[in-house]
Design brief:
heterodimer, A: alpha/beta, Rossmann fold, 6-stranded mixed β-sheet, 18 helices, 32% helix, B: 77% helix, ABC transporter permease (chain B)
Chain lengths: 507, 337
Amino acid sequence: MEDEAYIVEMEHIVKTFPGVRALDDVQFHLKAGQVMALLGENGAGKSTLAKILSGVYTRDSGTMRLFGKTIEGDLSPKQAQEMGVSIIHQELNMCSHLTVCQNIFLGHEKTRGSLLDNRSMRKQAQEVLSSLEIDLDPDIQVGDLAVSKQQMVEIAKALQSNAKVLIMDEPTSALTSVEIEQLFHLIRGLQSKGVGIIYISHRLEELQHIVDVVTIMRDGKYILEKPFKELSMNQIISNMVGREIKEKFPRIPSHRGKKVFSVQDLCAGPLVKHIHFDVYAGEILGVAGLMGAGRTEMTRAIFGADPKEKGRIILDGKEIAISCPEDAIRHGLVLAPEDRKKDGLCVKLSVRENIALPNLDLLCSKAGIVNRKKETEMVEKAIKDLKIKLSSTEANASSLSGGNQQKVVVGKWLARNSKVVIFDEPTRGIDVAAKVEIYQLMNQLKESGIAVMFISSEMPEILGFSDRIMVMCDGRITGELTREEATQEKILELATQFENKFETQVG
Amino acid sequence: MVLFIEKPFKRLMRIRGIGQVLTVTAGLVVLSIIFGIMNPIFFSSRNVANLLRQIAPILLIGIGQSYVLITGNIDLSIGSVVGMSTMISATLMTKGINPWVSVLITIIACLGVGLSNGLLVSFAKLPPFIATLGTMTIARGIAQIANNNYNTDSIGEAAQGLRDFFYYGKTFGLYNTIWIALVLWAIFNFILTRTKTGRHIYAIGSNAEAARLSGVNLVSTTTKAYLVSAFVSCVVGLITTATSGMGTMDAGNSYELYAVAASVIGGVSTLGGQGMLFGTIIGASIWGVLQNGLQFAGAPVAIRNIVIGIIVVISVLLDVIVRSGRGARKKRIESTT
């Protein structure tokens, strides 16, 4: 296999997004019949690289050769597919109301005259499925299948369209151990057919079962490429971490007060399992973890945005019942959500209305009439405190820049006297100046004795700004570190501490 | 001189969605002038009074539909609630029940439909189109069985007070019907613009999840909007009873669509979160002026329907074009930064 030619060669790939250099002189190689693990922390650039290879993004510079053919200019998604590059996303893209066969041929249906040739499509679908040893009826509706089977249909679809490079993004995250075993069996089958597989996963313990070679990226840069056998787990982890901490964090000393808030044995769905932690007045508790670790789900369950299965929430020594966000807000527990457009803002409404929305109880008379004077005062104070830049308080929230929108999302919660404030990714996608203002605001809250919790996927931010760090993996809390003992390695080790789902001895 | 008007003008222009309202207001003025020139009787005090009395019910149901549209939903049951209201009230009165007691019972029955709509949409999470299509059919059925599948007889002498209150009487020289519409408009406009409930209605229409995470109760807010819609439809039903002096089973047919037309012409977005009741007044007026003016011009009903349909489509189209133009410009700016 050693002397086989490369089917993917990428050299000196550069890709910049406004304000960020997502890929910086990255190289990547793949041979036919090889399973390559593409590893890196959140934001290392793995997905960007995969998207460039599949034509979703175009590269700024660098050379790309597919199957020995140099790609001139931009690669379109359609071209990439025609050349044999297929990507299987974490969220499956299937039409759940169509059958397996219809999905496999979606977009390139076979016709006879102008009529669908169902018989030959069905036959070919059956052939592809049996060549992959997938036991599935092609006439069954995809929506009725388990996630693992749907994933197999996607793989069959890719193969039907003649895929020779298959990119799999976190393929095992939703699978049970038996299903993972089936998937690995399938991957080995593909490998023997000469398909090159790019396997993106955070679950390092799985790699030993299937991976041949490892490429590690960090901070948008290429770090190394080595056969898996020559690397130890510790070497992999230490190569993944080590992001340079460039920014300065305006941390102030904390005066940890009494215990304000605790969550005990909280369970809510597969991504929130037996959560247990305390938060103290005047401290900032950072919550670290990889994407999909269940951090957002945990905060939503605490806040009452999603139903809980069980668990106790204790505020100021008293257990409180939270069944909807209204309850949480009334008790002085607030959440600035992660996705501002989806959860944080009413974009068609003005900045004034957005800031006033959660505080109408403070702004209204008993009859429910809004006191305009109080409202204007509150809004102007919030805008001044947060240095929100806008043409007028009547401007639509959608007209602001990302950073200013984020300040509105945060600012609307600061007008009330809360006891616990939870920030979910408060600095995602905003510029450095806006970040610093958000940090300063969190500091102000901390100084005034409020318990602050913040979730971040940015390792430097977590390390630089938290007083205490809690790490989550797969819906569980896998550890807690004080500021002094926390290092990038320790956090990543805890963040990849998956429960070993794949115990069966294979390979 | 210019400086004097500049400031209030700027403040006016800052109001969201004012553009479309001003455009259709200009349209309304132009239309009225054209009809006035074509037929001077159009501006006679008698015709203006009649015209306003024609507009009143459309304005009322327009208020209801605007409330529901701003929450991001739709109410298809409006016309059937009008029918139900007129049939229940007329039937009770022909059975000799005191007119005002009949009115009270009718309002309670109609609010029952509003409550069901609100709960089906917000609590049971049915698509609003389907939920209110169901209640629309049910309410029409109730209108039919109210008097055993017959229109009612005359509501009689005893109900003369009610007929004057809702239709024939005048206060300060204006027909009572117009006063009812204006007073209710003022109240509901105040609620929508100045109270917590009003703010919540806009918020859930703009982004229900963000509103929920800000502590807005989706079930009660949505239900309140549907209750307003059912209430104004009920009032229109009572006006209908007062007008004809009897109950007819198919009263209010397709009113829900007239209500959508009045709202949408006036700039209320069918996607929720946007619109104001001032626009709904203009929308309802355009509807009324077209009906009345075209009638004077001798156009048959069919032509009137076609013209109104075209106006609805054009006004929405204009809005879509303006918006997508703005969206495209924004995208360009984003891509260059």
